[in-house]
Design goal:
The protein is 36% helix and 20% strand. The chain is of the alpha+beta class and 683 residues long. The chain has six domains: 6-60, Helix Hairpins; 91-277 and 284-322, D-amino Acid Aminotransferase, Chain A, domain 1 (2-Layer Sandwich); 328-411, OB fold (Dihydrolipoamide Acetyltransferase, E2P) (Beta Barrel), CATH 2.40.50; 442-514, DNA polymerase, domain 1 (Orthogonal Bundle); 517-587, 5' to 3' exonuclease, C-terminal subdomain (DNA polymerase, domain 1); 609-681, 3-Layer(aba) Sandwich (Rossmann fold), CATH 3.40.50.10190. Strand 25 (645-648), helix 23 (654-662) and strand 26 (666-667) form a beta-alpha-beta unit. Helix 1 runs antiparallel to helix 2 (39-55), helix 12 (442-453) packs across helix 13 (465-473) and helix 16 crosses helix 17. The radius of gyration is 30 Å and the shape is flat. Bound molecules: 2-(butylsulfanyl)adenosine. 2-(butylsulfanyl)adenosine binds at residues 87-89, 120, 122-123, 127, 184, 236-237, 265, 298, 317, 322.
Length: 683
């Protein structure tokens, strides 16, 4: 083997340091919820790491933070045997049953009468079993049948809260040679709703609840998809342990896991059963507003030795029990199935229910997700159906109570025409969603206006769904630009509008002319362009004219804009209907320009993207950047395939290796100057 050069050795050292740093910052972010660096700084560390790995692929180890996404397994998942059975839990539903549980145990072993307890929320997610050898995450499995699960290591690697190496904090305790940890993978309500919204936008199948979303995401054959899903983790058990000082109580288990860097369930240590009951009631209250689904608390005898001595019945260890929350599922009659038309024209069915109370809330409507769902679950109009409401998630239909059928139920036929405008609907091949493709559909139009006026977009106060619908119904607006031509007199005939309200709305609309470009781009409702992409576009295009002229290739060079979104954007600007909207906006004076000063004069380097590494002769990094931008170039911090040139100064960093690995050409500062003299910026 050749002796490494001093430079190599230093790089290697930096590489090890980066791995440690990134693991640590993941832990601060995903486990402690207390990041100590900005996302930007984090990205920089990650990029530096990736650059080194690109130049030295042989250095990469499975515990590298870059290995969170990997290659998909060719087919299915391998089976893995658990080191000890992955047991489940018996349930109790009230205090009397809880007392009876403890009484039975006390008869088996009188020491139970003095026992203390750990009381933990029971997270409604998916069990995962994580194996670590010498501190490195080597295997992750599903529960399966409790004896054998499926090897989902590649997917679990992509879950940020799963430590790839323990202890995560270098100051933490040394890792035991072997430890297997059990936890629950889950999704928060907010992440679940956002994921479904995203899937809906893409015309893909949505998930019925956060649990299904978590399960579906973990059982993806392609880990790159799992990597994009907002999965979280909370741990609560050590399934196998080899090493010094095995924990003796459940409380110690949680402390140890925490010290090693695992996120652990928020537990309460109770000295007696009264405390357990109080803890349960506190969780019943909290559950309403908790960010993720819980279906009870788990009551565990704290002393692990005592717990084990009590044995197992079937698959349930006697020494712990699930104290379930009151159900939030009820049955009621499905009176009708109706259809909503969204902003992009997607038709979404919903259930009209005989009103029913679930957990203190009267529910009249519930989502049915999509037409395939109705067919797959065989949900019929007139059915008695199970409705579930959990937390702040929109109530949904779990399925029909088939045994309650009378024969009078009606099989539902999905609409062939838009229920609002009557235009024929279309199903796009490969998508679940059914669309109304009539761009002038009033339902789409009012949703578009609602979106345009929303807080993240043009933020027009007082213009919500109801008024958007009124404006469309009265034919006062045919597109978003028409808003700016509304007068007080136009509004007065509308129901609920007096002079003051009309004047306020007109004033609010006029005030929105001052909103920055990014908000306007977002407000236009171009498919695939959310608030983040809109901001990105506004950073690169000074106004809507420039954006309208961008080609798919231009757009796809922006980090974060994929080819599909690039096509959506170009298509949007191509449509005559939308061009008309732009003309009217411009005429009304709604034509923000990006805040970044745009350059007059020739821009010889327009369209080129540069990255700088090392010290440039006679010019600071900031000055060089400003000069390049004045020549029309874009300057970014990391080398990617989209980089046109890497500018190399003295003492270049790891970016050089990355550029070489990717085949990105390099230039000296002098050569850049020469390039700017060349017409068209091409040598
Ligand atoms: S202890 C030996 N603790 O609930 C039994 N389970 O019905 C170990 N769960 O499959 C389970 N939160 O996936 C335990 N704090 C918690 C839990 C928890 C959620 C799940 C677990 C298990 C199911 C039992």
């Amino acid at each position: 083997m050749p002796t490494p050069t001093a430079n190599e050795a230093a790089l290697r050292q930096r590489y090890e340091e980066l791995k440690r740093l990134i693991h640590y910052h993941n832990y601060r972010y995903y486990v402690l919820n207390d990041p100590v660096i900005s996302d930007y700084e984090y990205d920089q560390l990650m990029r530096e790491l990736e650059a080194i790995e690109a130049a030295h692929p042989d250095w990469v180890t499975p515990d590298s933070p870059s290995q969170r996404a990997g290659a998909p397994p060719a087919e299915g998942f391998r089976k893995v045997r658990h080191p000890a059975p992955i047991l489940s839990l018996a349930n109790v539903f009230d205090d009397a049953e809880l007392e009876a549980w403890l009484e039975r145990l006390a008869r088996l072993n009188p020491r139970v009468r003095e026992a203390d307890f750990s009381v933990e929320p029971k997270i409604d997610g998916l069990t995962v079993v994580l194996h670590y050898r010498d501190g490195v995450f080597v295997l992750g499995a599903t529960r399966g049948d409790g004896l054998e699960g499926e090897d989902i290591t590649a997917n679990l690697r992509t879950v940020r809260a799963v430590p790839l190496r323990i202890p995560v904090d270098p100051q933490g305790p040394p890792p035991p040679p072997y430890i297997v940890v059990r936890g629950e993978a889950y999704m928060t309500h907010a992440d679940f709703e956002a994921l479904n919204e995203h899937l809906r936008q893409q015309g893909e199948r949505t998930f019925a609840n956060p649990r299904n979303a978590a399960a579906g995401s973990l059982r993806q054959l392609d880990p790159n998809i799992t990597a994009q899903r907002p999965l979280r983790l909370l741990c609560y058990q050590i399934v196998a342990y080899e090493g010094p000082h095995p924990p003796r109580t459940q409380w110690e288990v949680l402390q140890r896991l925490k010290a090693l860097g695992f996120p652990v369930v928020p537990a309460e240590h109770c000295p007696d059963l009264d405390c357990v009951k109080r803890a349960y009631r506190a969780w019943v209250e909290r559950r309403e507003h908790w960010p993720y689904d819980l279906d009870g608390v788990v009551v565990k005898i704290n002393d692990l030795e005592l717990q084990r001595s009590l044995g197992v019945v079937g698959k349930d260890p006697r020494g712990m029990v699930a104290y379930k929350f009151p159900a939030r599922e009820v049955t009621t009659v499905l009176l009708d199935i109706r259809v909503n038309v969204g902003r992009t024209g997607v038709l979404t069915p919903y259930a009209v229910l005989e009103p029913v109370e679930i957990g203190g809330v009267v529910v009249r409507k519930a989502t049915l997700h999509n037409f395939d769902y109705i067919r797959e679950k065989d949900i019929r109009v007139g059915d008695r159906v199970i409705v579930r409401r959990s937390g702040d998630v929109i109530p949904y239909i779990v399925g029909p109570v088939v045994s309650a059928r009378t024969g009078r139920e009606r099989v539902y036929e999905p609409p062939t025409h838009c229920p609002v405008c009557g235009a024929p609907v279309e199903k796009i091949v490969g998508e679940v969603a059914v669309y109304c493709i009539n761009a002038a559909c009033p339902a789409q139009l009012s949703r578009n206006i609602e979106h345009f006026a929303s807080r993240e977009a043009m933020d027009i106060e007082g213009l919500g769904r109801k008024i958007a619908e009124q404006l469309v119904a009265a034919r006062l607006v045919g597109d978003v630009a028409d808003l700016y031509y509304l007068t007080v007199d136009d509004l007065l005939p509308l129901e609920g509008f007096a002079q003051k309200k009309a004047a306020n709305l007109v004033a609010a609309i006029q005030a929105s002319k001052q909103r920055p470009l990014a908000r306007l781009i977002y407000g236009l409702g171009i498919r695939g362009v959310g608030a983040v992409n809109a901001r990105l576009l506004a950073e690169h295009y000074p106004d809507l004219d420039a954006l309208a002229q961008a080609t798919e290739e231009d757009l796809a060079t922006l980090e974060g804009i994929g080819p599909v979104t690039a096509r959506f954007i170009v298509d949007w600007f191509r449509q005559e209907r939308n061009r008309q909207v732009l003309r009217k906006l411009r005429q009304a004076g709604v034509w923000p320009r990006a805040e970044r000063a745009t350059q007059a004069g020739p821009q010889p380097l327009a369209g080129l993207t540069f990255v700088i590494t090392g010290t440039l002769p006679g010019i600071t990094r900031d000055e060089a950047k400003a000069w390049l931008e004045a020549q029309g170039a874009k300057v970014t911090n990391s080398v990617s395939r989209k980089t046109s040139y890497l500018i190399v100064g003295d003492n270049p960093g790891s970016k050089l290796a990355r550029a070489q690995a990717l085949g990105v050409p390099t230039l000296s500062w002098d050569e850049v100057q020469a390039l700017a003299q060349t017409p068209g910026g091409r040598p």
